[in-house]
Amino acid sequence: MRFLPRPKRSVRALLPLALALVGLLPAASGTSQIAPMSSHPLSVQPIEYRGWTHSLLLSNGLVEAIVVPAIGRVMQLRFTGDRDGPIWENPALAGGNVAPDPKEWANFGGDKAWPSPQSDWDHFAGRGWPPPSAFDGCSMEATVDGTSAVILASPIDPGYGVRVRRRIELAADRPVMTITTTYEKVAGSPVEVAVWVITQLKDPLLVSAPLVGSSGKAAGFVLQSETPPPSLHAADSLLSLTRDPMQNHKIGMRAGTLVWVGATELLRIDSTLVSGKPYPDSGCSAEIYTNADPLAYVELELLGPLTRLAVGEKIERVSSYSLARRSLPDPKLEVSRLLAAPPAQVP
C-alpha cells in the first residue's frame, strides 16, 4: 500500500575516479524471442541527464538504461536511438535534489526499492509516509565494475539498520535490463523485511498480470484501495486493467510477471516466485497501483518473501525488464504473445 509525496537529505553521490568508457564484453551468441542479437560491445559512460550531472548511460547497442545516483534511481530504459522509453519521469522535478524535508516525498518517477511491509514503516522510521530515508530519500554512491554493470549503494538506514545495493546491467545480446536488489543488515536488532521493487511507468493502454493461484480472493486479487479499478478484468488466470484518471487504485496478487503495454512498446518485468515462503500484504508477490490525474502514471511492483535479517545477513531479488516493440493492434493479443515467451534470463 502507498500513496503520494517523499523525503529528505542529500548524501553526495560518489562516482569512481575513472568513469571513462567501461566494459568491452563481446556480444553473446544465441537467439532472442524479443529482438535480434547485438554485436555492439557493452559499455557504461558518464552523462548529464535532464539536468542531473554524474548520471550513467548503460548500452548494449539494442537498448540503453539511464541511472541517476543523485536521486538513487534507474530513470529510463529505452531502445537505442529513441529519445525516451516507457518509464515515467516527473518533468516538474527534472534535475532536482532529494527532498530536504523528511515529511515530504519527491516523486521523481523511475525505478527504486522500498522495504515491505509498509505497515512497519511507522515502527522503524517513526512515520508511515514518506518512505524510510535511505531507501528513498538520499543520493547513492555509484560504482562501475569490470563487467559494465553499475552498482548503487545507499547509506545505512537508521531505522532498519539496512544498506540497499542495486546492481544494474544489460544482457549482451537482448533488449533486457537486470536489476539485482540486495538488502544487507549491518546494524541493530533483527528485522523481518521483504524487498519491494517499484517501477513507475507512463499511462498505459493496458497492464496485465498472469495469476498464480489466488491471493486470498476468488477473483485472484487483493484490494488495497477503497475501490477496485473500474476497468479491472480477471479471467483465465490473466488479470488486466487500465489507469483511472479520476481516482487512485491499488490491487495485489500472486504473480511473478507484470506487463505494461504502451502505444509502440511493451515492457515485461519478471521476478521469481519463492514457494513455501510468506509474502507481505496478505500474500502478495505483485502489486499494481494506478495514479489519478494530473500525474498520469502507473506502478508495477514486485515483492520478495518476508525474511528475518540479523546483522551480517542479506536478502536479494533479481528483476528482469524485457523491452519489445508493438507489432499487433490488439493490446491483449500482444500480451498473450509476450507471455508465451520464456522469462528473460539473467545476463
Our measurement of the CA-to-CA distance between the termini, rounded to an integer number of angstroms, reads 32 Å
Stated plainly, the CATH topology is called Beta-galactosidase, Chain A, domain 5
DSSP summary, beta strand count: 21
Strand content: 35-45%
Helical fraction? under 10%
What ranges have pLDDT less than 50 throughout 5 or more consecutive residues? 1-36
The best one-word shape is globular
Strand line-up across the major sheet: 6-7-8-9-21-17-16-11-14-13
Structural class: mainly beta
Can you summarize this structure?
The protein is mainly β.
How would you describe what is shown here?
- The chain has 347 residues and is mostly beta strands.
- Helices cover 5% and strands 37% of the residues.
- It is built from 3 helices and 21 strands.
- Strands 6-7-8-9-21-17-16-11-14-13 form a 10-stranded antiparallel sheet, covered by helices on one side.
- Strand 7 (150-153) and strand 8 form a beta hairpin.
- The protein has a single domain, classed as Beta-galactosidase, Chain A, domain 5 (Distorted Sandwich).
